[in-house]
Amino acid sequence: MTKSCNKVFITTPIYYVNDVPHIGHAYTTIIADTLARYSRLKGYETFFLTGTDEHGQKIQEAAKARGKSPKEYADEISQSFRTLWNEFDISYDKFIKTTDPEHIQGVQKAFEVMVEKGDIYKDHYEGFYCVSCETFFTQTQLIEGGFCPDCGKETHIVKEESYFFRLSKYEQQLLEWYQNDENCILPKAKKNEVINFVEQGLKDLSITRTSFDWGIKLPESMNDPKHVMYVWLDALLNYITALGYGSDEKRMDFWHNTTHLVGKDILRFHAIYWPAFLMSLGLDLPKHIGAHGWWTRNGEKMSKSKGNVVNPKEVADAYGLENFRYFLLREVPFGQDGDFSQKALIDRINSDLGNDLGNLLNRIIGMSAKYSDYRIDSKDVAKYHKKELDQAWAILEGIEHYIYELQLNRYLEDLWKVLTLANQTIATYEPWNLMKEGKIEEAFALVALIANLLAKVTILLSPVMPQTTQTIAKALGFEINTQAYLTLYKGNELLAPFEIEKVPALFPKIEEELLKKADPKPQMKADKKGKDQAEASIITIDQFFQTKLKIGTIIEAQEVPKSDRLLKLKVDLGEEKPRQIIAGIKEYYQPSDLIDTQVCVVANLKPAKIMGLLSEGMLLAAKDKNGLSLMRPEQPKKAGTAVG
Ligand code: ME8
Questions:
Q1: DSSP of 129-155, one letter per residue?
Q2: How many whole angstroms from 151 Cα to the centroid of ligand 1?
Q3: Closest ligand 1 atom to 266 CA
Q4: What is the mean pLDDT of residues 177-203?
Q5: CATH 2.40.50.140 domain range(s) in the chain
Q6: Closest C-alpha residue for ligand 1 atom 29
Q7: Core vs surface per residue 344-378: b (16+ CB within 10 A) or e
Q8: pLDDT tier at 534 (50, 70, 90 boundaries)?
Q9: Nearest CA to ligand 1 atom 4
Q10: How far is the CA of 394 from the centre of ligand 1 (A)?
Q11: Superfamily per CATH, domain 340-499
């Protein structure tokens, strides 16, 4: 979002329909929803887009595995995203599906425009493809053994006729864009990564496939029916086809002011391919591409394919949707990873929401009930509390720049500074003593000051907690809308006299015991649900022996920089080279205590990248409330000895 504009366009990625939604998707969607609500609060005409990405080899394979047609399967999973966003009150204006006829028409039109521009040519592609990431790689980009550098999964050699997009032609123009448009990619550290990547040189991009058919066909004018479009070309174009590109273009004027929200995993597609496609089409470039970090579980990226995801619906049901929204936005700085912890969520609810926000409202209600029969009047606030009003304004005046820079955690931190100021002011002036001393006007003014500070925070908090803040605003005698934003916030005006309403406790304290019951379990993958669920816990001896367990000797151990949980280990498994294993055990073991000790290792796990480091196995450990213990042989064993 930029500082002043009439029309604002905000997007989430369109999510793959290869499995059900999880907390990572909810995170991106909630950030985008918050920005869309903020933009509407400011009075801007806002168009908020989300949807599902339904073509490609990955979806075709997932559908086949479930005995469904790709369309049938895509419709079903797409609906589960739509249902969740509806249950989460996500204020989207359009939910696009890439199987929508208008989208297909728009993508074909874009292809034709790129051909006319001379940006597409036919050749042969030879290289490696990761179906899970739907990404092409060169051999040098792969990690040892031919695995995908992004997700660690196996890649396949692809050798087929393909159309190419002249990405290399746009290298210089892209670098100029990054240079000239300071906030085009946020946070800035991520922008630097993109610049480094582009500076190493861009290769033309294969944009069609012939080895499967679940994709958008080339326009008829190409007369080449065996090709379907590369899923990323198809998917990225959703951002303009949703506004009518290539069909009914009446919404295209939203395009001039676009903010894309994405996870860091797909920044390259959005910050390199997408602007190059737009340059080819002769369209404006997005104003901002914001890349957030990952939610991890025990240090590993939460993802559908790993089956370690947290179900956002369960969390929202257990703790309250708006509390969950607050937590997601407040807990992790934009762009950084965060390990999902129920404890942290409870702390935020009990402390920030219960103690700081909910209690403040209760205190205002309690004091006004006692002193002024619920009447609150701002008339003497400036007389007695100019200092506090100025202090609050000093915090609030510039707070919006955090929104433009997508630093929602900093934004919330500053709102909480105003709540702290309000709570401290009550402690400083002790209104109960003012009343005892007969300083009634002063006591009334103090209560009114606090109500006004809370009112300002409430307006600015409303995009994050839309329902809760409406309740608080109603108690404080006003409604949250653009008018209130312009007067009480922007104009720094004070509340008109009102009678405060009692409200039930907004954030009942969450007790430890209750929490344990509501512990959100990692979600099972969609295909394991139902009947499979009962059978899933019993395995045959053959299935057991598919897991190769071996004794390993730790020969090196060191901390992983910037991680509270991870250690980087070198483990001898009696092989030619020791393995590198990234283990989430830092809280329980000192690196020096691990050297020369033995552990039990899952030796045939697919290598994966954890915080950018290759991990080639997993240590067995048992964890309970007393801590974590590594599983070790009773007597020393030769490194590499099989366990089983
Ligand atoms: O990439 N933490 O779809 P996708 C935080 N269809 N966010 C996460 C996350 C995690 N652990 N896991 C997923 C695709 N996300 C393409 C996009 S857009 C033209 C095409 C969020 O279903 C995050 O926003 O794999 C990430 O970028 C997105 O989901 C990937 O969703």
A1: EETTTTEEE-GGGSBTTTB-TTT--B-
A2: 13
A3: 27
A4: 96
A5: 540-643
A6: 25
A7: ebbebbbebbbebbbbbbebbbebbeebbeeebbb
A8: very low
A9: 15
A10: 37
A11: Isoleucyl-tRNA Synthetase; Domain 1 (1.10.730.10)
Task: For the chain, give every residue range classified as CATH 1.10.730.10.
Answer: 340-499
- Provide CB contacts within 8 A for 509, sequence distance 6+: 350, 354
All CATH 3.40.50.620 domain ranges in the chain, comma separated: 7-292
* Least confident residue range of 440-449, 471-480, 588-597: 588-597
pLDDT-based confidence at residue 566 (cuts at 50, 70, 90): confident
pLDDT over 70 (residue 374)? yes
CATH number at 540-643: 2.40.50.140
CA of residue 15 to ligand 1 center, whole Å: 6
For a ligand 1 pocket test, name from 14, 15, 22, 329 the mutation site with the most ligand atoms within 8 angstroms of its C-beta. 15
Protein residue with least CA distance to atom 15, ligand 1:
24
Q: Looking at 478-482, 520-524, 544-548, which range is the least confident one?
A: 520-524
pLDDT of residue 511 exceeding 90, the answer is: no
Distance in Å, CA 12 to ligand 1 centroid: 9
Residue with CA at minimum distance from ligand 1 atom 24: 263
Mean pLDDT of the chain: 91
Cα distance between residue 438 and residue 400, in whole Å: 41
| Confidence at 516, pLDDT banded by 50, 70, 90 | low
In this structure, what token pair is assigned to residue 394? 């000093």
User: In testing the pocket of ligand 1, which one of 265, 273, 303, 311 has its CB within 8 Å of the most ligand atoms?
Assistant: 265
CA–centroid distance, 14 to ligand 1, in Å, is 8
Place of tokens 């990625």: 13
Ligand 1: centre distance to CA 92 (Å): 17
Q: 267-290, pLDDT tens digit by residue? A: 999 999 999 999 999 999 999 999
State mean pLDDT over 317-330. 96
Cβ < 6 Å from ligand 1: which residues?
13-16, 24-25, 27-28, 53, 235-236, 238, 262-263, 265-266, 294-295, 301-303
User: Is residue 525 very low, low, confident or very high in pLDDT (cuts 50, 70, 90)?
Assistant: very low
Q: Whose CA is nearest to atom 19 of ligand 1?
A: 236
Ligand 1 pocket: which of 11, 16, 274, 340 to mutate (most atoms within 8 A of CB): 16
Find all residues with CB under 8 Å of 505, minimum gap 6, and list them: 358, 362
From the candidate CATH numbers 3.40.720.10, 3.40.50.620, 2.60.120.560, 2.40.160.10, the one assigned to the domain spanning 7-292? 3.40.50.620
**Ligand 1 pocket mutation pick from 12, 27, 84 by most atoms within 8 angstroms of CB:** 27
Q: Which two tokens stand for residue 108?
A: 């074909």
Q: How far apart are CA 127 and CA 156, in angstroms?
A: 8
Helices and strands counted in the chain (H then E): 25, 27
Strands 258-263 and 228-229: unpaired
CA angle centred on 281, ends 278 and 284, rounded to 5°? 50
* More confident position, 642 or 458: 458
Higher pLDDT, 550 or 306: 550
At residue 151, the pLDDT reads 83
